[in-house]
What we know:
8-stranded mixed β-sheet, RNA-binding, 425 residues, BirA Bifunctional Protein, domain 2
Amino acid sequence: MKITGPKGTHDILYKNIYKWQFIESQLKNLVELYDYQEMRTPIFENTDLFLRGVGDTTDIVDKEMYTFKDKGDRSITLRPEGTAGVVRSFIEHSCYNEVLPGKFYYYGPMFRYSRPQAGRYRQFHQFGVEALGSADPFLDGEVLELMMNMFKALGLKQLKLEINSVGCPVCRPIHKEKLKDYLKSHYDQLCPTCQSRYEKNPLRIFDCKSLTCQEIIQKGPYVTDNLCDDCENHFIKVKEYLDMVELEYEVNKKMVRGLDYYTKTAFEVSAGREGSQSSIGGGGRYDGLVEELGGPELSGIGFAIGLERIVMTMDEQMLFEGKFESVNKVFIASVSSNEIPETVRLVSLLRKNDIHALRDTMNRKLKAQFKYANKIGADYVITIGDEEVSSKIYTLKNMKTSKEESYVESDLINILKGENNEFKK
RNA sequence: GUGGGUGUAGUUCAGUGGUAGAGCGCUAGUUUGUGGCACUAGAAGUCGUGGGUUCAAAUCCCAUCAUCCACCCCA
């Protein structure tokens, strides 16, 4: 039986890695420009962290966590998202006694136990940003601006930013009651899932795809109808910032995010794809989370973007064309086995000079060595025969133009290292 | 968790009861020290796995696993 990777995992192969490296470096540069610093937290945490942090009415905690017992009988969970871990670390190391707001970013694998499909995996990667300690609505705006600039830096097209306000512990309970009052008379028409949501988390009914549920909920009260003054003003200010920086957005009054900790601002971004797995990033403000996890009363806001979906969308939008940066490769060929020592010497010498050089290790004939050099995309080939060994003059062949020129060793190195190398063209 | 499609060479797939195939890729060769093109040859598959029907199964039946797609949900 062939051994395969576990369900829902995928390998990023050598030929695609440049895509990931390109994305990583673009995003890293950009968030650092906004003065965010990297945090690396463990890939697994104590299960309680997510129960408290993410919330036990969410689907993530309900059915998607990778939870198991370790040998010390502790309940461990592979992180399903990044915020909880960063906040835990922030509190544990008392970072709130340092500079506020704490501005962090993270990058790495996340785990959710759900059936895989296009753009959805059990191990997937997120790049996320968190800002802790500021309740300023303009920070929300700046965070949104950053997120959109990240997508733009990658060249993504057809971007759609949707925002909403989901209220706070002051106004949300009031809204919840009003919503439940309204839904009470329609309870029997709701789908089974929404009937169970009715008690636990009626806001989520907005997410339901069932037509009847949609019809019912359309006419019901929206969160934004019942915002308290604080939330209302906050939302207005966020939109004000977005207008100031000329960022396009849409208010989606029906948007409710899947995590319990969100307060006030919530948002989601899609690019192109309609329907399934269109969301490439999302986030929101979470003003109660730090306290909930045992820290001081500090507000927070953050978002995460899904790398697999970014790669998928960039492939669809053909944004990787020409992004593969190839270095100049030099292949040292030998006419016969007599010249092998000389190729070893030369390759080693070139590498000492930071030149990407390699030689045959398959005992191939000269012709086959050229085929190989061609296949791996070598830019130059130097052929070593008895003539070269005795004369110490080497012929450099440009594989694109087929032109050949001869040099002594020191000139050869200068040519291959040199910036104004006319022979390159 | 629910529903549907698909599992044959590295890969894309053909093969519907009777000797396991093709394109691409890979390796080598087409004599003299030179690649891309062409030609030739070669390696490579317990036909996903287990059971059943049959003289005979890649092919029919059952189960199972994997994978893909959709729903749920999300990134």
